[in-house]
Design brief:
two-stranded antiparallel ribbon, globular, 3% helix, 18-stranded antiparallel barrel, mainly beta
């Protein structure tokens, strides 16, 4: 169980500035976010809203799953995988307020996970984050920060549910060039700490706990009323707590395109060129393109296609592997059957390419997933569904990483 208390310091800023007189004036969208503050909204919520003067609150509760898991620990078939019943619930609240001289956005949530048989997998986590943009005519300083504790699998490479503590402090300044364009500079510092987590005999807290520093300079403009573009250059440093030989620095040139919710195609496309150099002389530098895309496209009035694509460099939990290149795609199609009832099919593949050292044989692991669901769409833009999912991982180099997992569960998720 996680027991650290939520730090209140972030909220002091928002309580103080909330005394400013409200105004309906609009402002440019947020830029320069850190890893925790990036999901914060920069426009007020429109569904499930409670209004308290100038403050908009959107409380909710998401049932991620109530169901059966055939392989709780992602064990290989020959290890006789353990099965169990699981419940995962996420109560949360979002806050937004646009005042005369400040725009506030904040979020607080808690993730509660319960396994019927395996007490070691039960957990209680939290996430809290916030940001304030000070609207001083065209000049807009901003500050943000967040804290989170989770006990989940951090990525597709790691099979154990690891206790992880995340912290962020960020800030910067933006200048509005016009009603549709801005220029900005920003920076953030984030901490990532692991506890009591072992994968294949490796202590993850020793190999992955680190501090990250990042600095950005860029601009953002609206190309059309439905499409915006953000261009920025950034410099980042990774400083490992226990294995400084893993330290690295990277330089990135990034373009981000965002489609408005009113557009036919909605979502985000992120393209970058990354130049990453490591302190460890035996690791190959990485120079190449990375990116991600999350796109939704309606199919006439009877369905909806969704696609999520990722290409990125990630540190491996195993120092001998160094890092890996992840390339993944996930596709889904939702078909409207009748009334508010729909059916969904989905599938995806992730590949983890290990080729960082000359002394370690290169290999590629894969993780395939397929699934489907039947759902009912409620008026508050949530979806109640019965789901089935099958996942299969294969590694040509490490047989202990192979697994097959099936899940059958009920979910009540926001349908963005």
């Amino acid at each position: 169980m996680l027991s650290r208390s939520v730090r209140p310091s972030i909220w002091v800023v928002f309580i103080c500035v909330a005394l400013v007189v409200p105004t309906p004036a609009a402002a440019q969208s947020a830029v320069g976010q850190g890893p925790l503050t990036a999901p914060l909204a920069d426009t007020e919520p429109t569904t499930g809203v409670l209004t308290l003067g100038p403050v908009k609150l959107a409380p909710g509760i998401t049932i991620r799953e109530i169901g059966w898991d055939s392989n709780v620990f992602d064990e290989p078939p020959e290890a006789q995988p353990k099965e169990d019943w699981v419940v995962s619930v996420l109560p949360d609240v979002s806050m937004f307020s646009l005042l005369r001289f400040v725009r506030l956005s904040a979020y607080a949530g808690s993730e509660l996970t319960y396994y019927d048989k395996y007490e070691s997998e039960r957990s209680t986590g939290y996430a809290v984050r916030g940001r304030a943009d000070f609207l001083l005519s065209r000049l807009r300083p901003f500050i943000g920060g967040g804290s989170a504790e989770t006990r989940t699998r951090p990525n597709g490479e790691i099979d154990v549910r690891a206790d992880r503590q995340l912290e962020e402090v960020s800030g910067g300044i933006a200048f509005d060039l016009s009603p549709t364009s801005l220029f900005y500079g920003s920076g953030y510092r984030s901490l990532e700490d692991y506890e009591d987590a072992f994968q294949d005999g490796v202590n993850i807290s020793q190999t992955l706990s680190r501090e990250s520093l990042n600095y950005q300079v860029g601009m953002k403009t609206d190309l059309t009323p439905l499409l915006s573009m953000q261009l920025f250059g950034s410099y980042g440093e990774e400083k490992f707590t226990y294995e400084p030989i893993r330290n690295s620095d990277s330089r990135n040139a990034t373009a981000v395109f965002r489609f408005a919710p009113e557009a036919v195609v909605t979502g985000t496309v992120n393209l970058a060129f990354r130049d990453m150099v490591f302190d460890d002389p035996t690791l190959k530098p990485y120079r190449g393109f990375t990116g991600m895309a999350a796109i939704i496209y309606p199919f006439f009035e009877v369905g909806r296609f969704s696609a999520a694509l990722i290409r990125g460099v990630e540190y491996s939990f195993d120092s001998l592997e160094g890092y890996y290149l992840e390339q993944s795609y996930n596709l889904s199609y939702t078909h409207f059957l009748f009334g508010e009832v729909d059916a969904q099919v989905r599938g995806g593949r992730a590949s983890f390419e290990y080729d960082a050292r000359e002394t370690v044989p290169e290999h590629t692991d894969t993780l395939d997933t397929v699934g489907g669901s039947v759902g009912y769409n409620l008026r508050n833009r949530t979806r109640l569904a019965i789901n089935y999912e099958y996942a299969r991982r294969r590694s040509p180099a490490y047989a202990q990483r192979n697994f097959d997992r099936r899940r059958v569960y009920l979910s009540w998720l926001f349908a963005f």
